């Protein structure tokens, strides 16, 4: 199995579980690096447990998600995820998130996401 194929399988497992909000954690590396949520903060959140906490918070906002596009090249991938969101203030919307992945040693090793952070700030209590 080539790197592209194994990376694609990891992502398919991740997104299948992520859409169901269960079972996605198995493909995340213990030393996972995540950057997202604040475009001015480029210091990664480190560790599988730390990423699980991020997703537990995000799971309260997204209702459904689907992969619109996935491009895999070796250990790297680019995904456009489409999310139906319901914010705590009652505002609902649909939005795309650009997700840049790296796989290493049979696990997903890092993720960097890009999305409309202002909409999240305006609709999420501090």
User: How much helix is in the residues?
Assistant: 25-40%
Strand order of the largest sheet: 2-1-6-5-4-3
Terminal CA distance reads: 46 Å
In DSSP terms, counting alpha (H) and pi (I) runs of 4 or more, how many helices? 3
Largest sheet: 6 strands, mixed
Mean pLDDT: 91
Based on CA atoms alone, the radius of gyration comes out at 14 Å
* Backbone shape: globular
Let me know the number of strands.
6
CATH topology: Nuclear Transport Factor 2, Chain: A
Low-confidence stretches: none
Count of individual domains: 1
Class computed from helices, strands and strand pairing: alpha+beta
CATH class: Alpha Beta
Please trace the helix and strand order, writing H or E for each element.
HEEHEEEEH
Indicate the CATH architecture.
Answer: Roll
**Percent in strands:** 35-45%
What is the topology?
Blueprint: H1 3-20, E1 28-35, E2 45-46, H2 48-58, E3 62-73, E4 76-86, E5 92-104, E6 107-114, H3 117-123
Protein name: Nuclear transport factor 2 family protein
InterPro entries: NTF2-like_dom_sf (IPR032710), SnoaL-like (IPR037401)
Domain SnoaL-like: 14-110
Structure description:
With 126 residues, the protein is α+β, with helices and mostly antiparallel strands. It has one domain (3-123): Nuclear Transport Factor 2, Chain: A (Roll). Helices cover 29% and strands 43% of the residues. The chain has three helices and six strands, in the order αββαββββα. The protein has helices at 3-20, 48-58, 117-123, and strands at 28-35, 45-46, 62-73, 76-86, 92-104, 107-114. Strands 2-1-6-5-4-3 form a six-stranded mixed sheet. A hairpin with a 5-residue loop joins strand 4 (76-86) and strand 5. The longest helix is centred in the N-terminal third of the chain and has 18 residues, at 3-20. It starts with a helix and ends with a helix. The mean pLDDT is 91.
């Amino acid at each position: 199995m080539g790197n592209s194929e194994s990376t694609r399988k990891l992502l398919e497992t991740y997104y299948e579980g992520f859409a169901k909000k269960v079972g996605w954690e198995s493909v995340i590396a213990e030393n996972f690096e995540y950057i997202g949520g604040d475009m001015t903060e480029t210091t990664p959140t480190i560790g599988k447990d730390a990423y699980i906490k991020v997703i537990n918070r995000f799971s309260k906002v997204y209702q459904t998600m689907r992969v619109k596009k996935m491009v895999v090249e070796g250990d790297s991938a680019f995904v456009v995820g489409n999310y139906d969101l319901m914010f705590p203030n009652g505002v609902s919307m649909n939005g795309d998130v650009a997700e840049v992945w790296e796989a290493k040693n049979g696990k997903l090793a890092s993720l960097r996401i890009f999305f409309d952070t202002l909409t999240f700030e305006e609709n999420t209590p501090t």
